[in-house]
Amino acid sequence: MDFDQFRVATPTSFELAKLPTDYDGGVKDDDLKELREELWLELAEWQERLYAENKQSLLVVFQAMDAAGKDSSIGKLTSALSAHGCHVKSFKKPSTLEAGHDFLWRIHAAAPKSGEMTMFNRSHYEDVLIVKVHQWADAETIERRYDHINNFERLLADRGTKVVKFMLNISKDYQLERFQRRLENPDKHWKFNPGDLDERAKWSDYMHAFESAIGRCSSDEAPWYIVPAENRKYRDVMIASVLRDTLKAMDPQYPEPDFDPTVYTVDSIS
Amino acid sequence: MDFDQFRVATPTSFELAKLPTDYDGGVKDDDLKELREELWLELAEWQERLYAENKQSLLVVFQAMDAAGKDSSIGKLTSALSAHGCHVKSFKKPSTLEAGHDFLWRIHAAAPKSGEMTMFNRSHYEDVLIVKVHQWADAETIERRYDHINNFERLLADRGTKVVKFMLNISKDYQLERFQRRLENPDKHWKFNPGDLDERAKWSDYMHAFESAIGRCSSDEAPWYIVPAENRKYRDVMIASVLRDTLKAMDPQYPEPDFDPTVYTVDSIS
């Protein structure tokens, strides 16, 4: 399957509304399920190579409107991976300490070390999304932040950290349905926050903010993928497939042993 | 006293050898001593304003050849300041965790929060000084690091962190004398390391590396000062004076009280 149509790897301008949110790529449900299982196994193998090589690293960013499935995407992905060298970091409202620094300070601190993968549940992009929509910073500050983000992602790339960014794309109607489900199910109430409705009311402002952020902060070293996220199997396949291909292209190598394995024999202890 | 002749605030090329290392600015020793005391008092007042305002911050970088007086400069300066909101961070050989990240990762983590001052004893500039001299990274990597440093310092500036960088400039002969003193005095042996002589042997390579780093990474928001460092009183006066002027220009304000001070009376408890 080819996901190039959903890849943004150079600065560009585009309309989110023109991209699908519910999509199966013409593949049957059962086949998507099977494919997903295969990809997760492959991904685990590539992760082991990355960890063994201990030179490069992978940063995966997830951004989306509320209820688009960030938690579920990350949860499924990390289940497939080894907890050795795989981290998840969620970014909420900055703490007092975090707010006392530049917006990339807490982000940089959580960047993966060599051999490791880190998934960001929200990220530095919040500082050009929610902050832009609410005008908590002026337009010039937002402009400068795009540059700071590009510079920062280039710094990571130069050290061997590949950055892959997923925007989980859903429709306004789909969010409505998910919110209603959260309100109807007491076990999901913790996931709902009345403030979410205020953000929902600014839907089109958010779409414009996403279009600018993705359009301004895309590069070959740190591409965005706009994932049609309503079909969860297709979503999972796309994410796993993109990450598998990314790791494949990074081509991590098992290190040469610094001993001669033929010299040693392992005896059972009598 | 005017220190503009020692200020580098735009990209430039220059020769360190043409700048003085032993200099008193035409001021008598006793007068320098008196001036230094006055400046330290002033500096403490400005630091209090910075701390009370809790919006901006100050990062002071010290770089120099061995035995030029980094420890002593920082020690004297911090004695004059309040430990509240004043930090010193020394950067040695990167740890395994630090080396598993980009070169600015550990630097960014130590950047001052709003209201605070941090002194860096060595810094990210080691990654374009010792690393360049020993060719631990190729020329292209060093070039890219200059850009990364400029981008990083601009990120700090945009958040209200002023960066001031001091290169303590000494002659080769002066270092010889200081090394001899360290060897002759058992109380100073801990400050000497036979490897220091290997670095000394690369003196002119270091001078070229300093010239490139300072020439490439100078801006109005993050200027370098090349301090004639052999006369320690002049050195201290220059450092204190530059920092006093920097804080003055930052113009930190005591915050408006959120209460009416005339409403309250404080009684002695009977």
Automatic annotation (TrEMBL), chains A, B:
Residues folding into a coiled coil are none
Q: Which keywords has UniProt assigned to this entry?
A: Kinase, Transferase
> What would you give as a GO molecular function for this chain, any one?
polyphosphate kinase activity
Gene3D superfamilies this protein is in? P-loop containing nucleotide triphosphate hydrolases
- GO BP terms, alphabetized: polyphosphate metabolic process
Q: Where is the signal peptide?
A: none
Write down the superkingdom of origin.
Answer: Bacteria
Note one Pfam family from the annotation: PPK2
InterPro entries attached here?
Answer: P-loop_NTPase, Polyphosphate_phosphotransfera, PPK2-rel_1, PPK2-related
Q: Which residues form the Polyphosphate kinase-2-related domain?
A: 29-253
Q: Which family does it belong to?
A: Belongs to the polyphosphate kinase 2 (PPK2) family. Class I subfamily.
PANTHER family according to UniProt: POLYPHOSPHATE:AMP PHOSPHOTRANSFERASE, POLYPHOSPHATE:AMP PHOSPHOTRANSFERASE-RELATED
UniProt name for this protein: Polyphosphate:AMP phosphotransferase
Q: What is the taxonomic lineage of the source species?
A: Bacteria, Pseudomonadati, Pseudomonadota, Gammaproteobacteria, Arenicellales
